[in-house]
Specification:
172 residues, mainly beta, 2 domains, six-stranded mixed beta sheet, two-stranded antiparallel ribbon, 8 strands, elongated
């Protein structure tokens, strides 16, 4: 979305309300993640004596599978986005991610917003923060019950030591 900032820059107003939907097709594709068609974005751009601050909140609804138990997951991630707005050419360090630049009185917020969404999207999607996952031996869902699989395995390189202790008959 491109915002026309001429009224803000000329001093006619000191605040611009922002409320729009971002098409989810603009978001990058993630493995096993399907985004809903629209991402809701709300916020404001304020000018306090030449110091302009962009504050946005976006809600991203998605469908995926749990990384531990493979159950379907439908969830929403709310991402807060705050940047300082400056005129083009004012930045001496162009690698600074805390700023977005105005070009010809217009501010394109989508690129910086999408980048922030990618960085703040969960790395591991879980159905529940306490999900126990699946048994690595039999595959039973450990959230619904337990299994009788032996999960403690002895490192084969140290198995010789176990035989040493089993054969110990006190002849030291």
């Amino acid at each position: 979305m491109k915002l026309d900032l001429r009224k803000l820059l000329s001093g006619e107003t000191d605040r611009i309300e922002i409320d729009y939907t971002l098409d989810s097709s603009e978001l990058p594709e993630f493995d096993d993640v399907t985004f809903e068609n629209e991402v809701r974005v709300k916020g404001e751009l304020t000018n306090n004596g030449g110091y302009m601050r962009l504050s946005l909140t976006s809600s991203i609804s998605y469908d995926s599978i749990c990384a531990r138990c493979l159950k379907p997951v439908h969830d929403t991630v709310n991402i807060d986005f705050e940047k300082t707005v400056c005129a083009q050419g004012d930045l001496q360090n162009t690698d600074n991610d805390d700023y977005v630049e105005i070009e010809d009185g217009m501010l394109d917020i989508d690129e910086a917003l999408i980048e922030d969404m990618i960085l703040n999207f969960p790395l591991k999607i879980l159905c529940d923060k306490d999900c126990k996952g699946l048994c690595p031996k039999c595959g039973i869902d450990l959230n619904t019950g337990s299994c009788s699989c032996v999960t403690k395995e002895i490192d084969p390189r140290l198995a010789v030591l176990l035989k040493f202790f089993d054969n110990d008959d006190g002849d030291n």
